[in-house]
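Sample 3 of the quickstart, ligand alpha-D-glucopyranose:
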Amino acid sequence: MHDDTARAILRGNDRTTDGGAYTVPTDMLYPFQWNWDSAFAAWGFSTFDTDRAWRELETLFAAQWADGMVPHMVFHDAAPGYFPGPDVWGAGGEVPTSGISQPPVAATMARLVWEADPEAGRTRMAALYPKLLAWHRWWMETRCGSGAVAVCHPWESGRDNCPDWDVGLAGVDGSGAGDYARRDEAQVDGAQRPTKQEYDRYLALVRFGRDCGWDQATIVADCPFYMADPGMTFILIRAHDDLAAMGRSLGQDVTELEGWAAALRDGVDSLWNPELGAWDAKDLRSGAWAGIVGSGALLCWLAGCERPEMEAHLARMWDAVTYGLPSSDPEAPSFERKRYWRGPVWPQMNALIALGFLRAGRDWDEARLREETATLIETSGFREYFDPIDAAPCGGDSFTWTAAVWLAWAGR
Ligand code: GLC
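Result:
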């Protein structure tokens, strides 16, 4: 029964236009194509419609910029009420887009889609391969100067308002944002969403990017927010590994990809905070640590970058809540169980963390996380995210990645 509902959600959120086929994360609240949401959608589609799965990724990569960047949002639809919409970003080509990227999970998801139907996937993947490679190169060349992956906007990390970014955002002047109507506030309880002060700063960063014409050299040198993140680094390492594995099957020379993965495995050492005894985000402007064990750190297994200290944090953080792994340390003062990325549990993060457990041979942990994620969905529906203590439903409903994660993993 849940399988039928999940498939109906993916079909219901499917938007097929002249420009291609894409899935909105959820109707109304998020009316466009989002980068990592689409990668998870493809994984979900691969359980019952492989052609549709590939088309999701193909449509996303059709919006790739000339420099290789794949934007975090693609504005296929005018959706005039959305803020910040295409006119605020002032970015993209034929199809307007946002000006930043999002977690590069597409190669990891493409590999799973390919495995679901090896025969059909070969030609589709062969066509996508150079585009994925160009995107991975973009990350290495523009965001990895410190050795690890950095983000120029909290939204680039996908974990929009997690406390990891507080230290970097403190240096951003949000005055001058003026009045504006946020789409999320009209539709979701304000107590579950980022505050106005945070939002003003997000908009200041968008303005900075637009004013420099999204010139990467200027952004890397001068954007008032620039933080290195273990979570993004682990995701990119894993994506390099997955792309390399697919490249080998396609007969490609993957030396460059192997080199990138090795370089990041060295570089991520710069994000080990000895005082915290954990992987930690770092403000590259001030040099300050975020000082928080976030869900990004829990992706270390995904990349094979685990350390014994992280096992202790995992056990501690997991036992402090009831369902799955929270988006932020439940024992830290910044923890808020219902506010977006400051505590709630996110189904797609659980799925990524679980892929890491599988890689590390932690089958028991993977099973526990899968069962807890399934319970959240069975109890509260296909919601955007959940309260990790009592499973209360949060954010948008009939959510694409929740349905996808159910079909491909949690409901298995
Ligand atoms: C929010 C999330 C982001 C996601 C988007 C669409 O902005 O923080 O990770 O991609 O919504 O679901």
